[in-house]
Amino acid sequence: MSKQNQWVVGVNAVASAVENDAEHVREVLVESGARNPRLVEIEEQARRRGIEVRKVATQALDGIAGQLRHQGVAARYAAARTWDEHELAGLVEAAAGRALLLVLDGVQDPHNLGACLRSAAAAGATAVVIPKDKSAPVNATVRKTSAGAADRLPVVVVTNLSRSLRELQKLGVWIYGLAGDAQAPLYGVDLAGNVALVLGGEAEGLRRLTREHCDGLVRIPMPGDIESLNVSVAAGVCLFEAVRQRS
């Protein structure tokens, strides 16, 4: 894989790429002799959109997919689509006072990032914000794990996360960071308006500067013996509390 191309594998990920981002799909590879009707649908849709489709042996797809389950199909991307930080203000303004942002401060496992994107898309989030450095890129593993959410949801890559949080505050967004040592429970804060939920990385949690730029720190009450949740699980809990409050 070169810096200019990446492969997306799996039925849901490829179908979403063809449907939502066809201009960046250079070709679709389909397993020869496959009988899955979903593969036929993907092939037909790709051809309708002018995307080259090639039938290949299973071994070719195995080589592309590596450890991922390809389900008989792969797509070659010209580039991963992400949003520029300067577009963030427009996304917030378009949400008309109901922006819901998920900010991930250094999530480096692509499976976790993909799962977070999937939860964010399911919750109807406005966008997911990630830093340019110390974060997993939106690669094939992320697209696969997100089940197509990476193509439906704006993923905004920012150079300086602290600066972006300040800009969000100027736009009227309340920023709440999730921290295990916080005193305020998640369920006691108002998440109905313009809100950004900030979660830290797998190892260190929220970085010091990120914590300092939050309007408040909250925790998920956990009466059990486990001290912390996986970041993607915690993201789902926080996002759907916001959904509950807004419904």
Tally the helices: what do you get?
10
Mind summarizing the main beta sheet? 8 strands, parallel
Secondary-structure content class: alpha/beta
Count the E strands: 12
Order of helices and strands: EHEHEHEEHEHEHHEHEEEHEH
What integer is the average pLDDT? 91
What overall form do the CA principal axes indicate?
A: elongated
**In percent, how helical is the residue content?**
25-40%
**Spatial arrangement of strands, main beta sheet:** 5-8-7-6-11-9-12-10
Low-confidence stretches: none
Q: Which band does the percent of strand residues land in?
A: 15-25%
What does this structure look like?
With 247 residues, this protein is α/β, with parallel strands linked by helices. An eight-stranded parallel sheet has the order 5-8-7-6-11-9-12-10, with helices on both faces. The chain has a four-stranded mixed sheet with strand order 1-4-2-3. The longest helix is centred in the last third of the chain and has 16 residues, at 231-246. 37% of the residues lie in helices and 22% in strands. β6, α5 (110-122) and β7 form a beta-alpha-beta unit. α1 packs parallel to α2 (37-48) and α5 (110-122) runs parallel beside α10 (231-246).
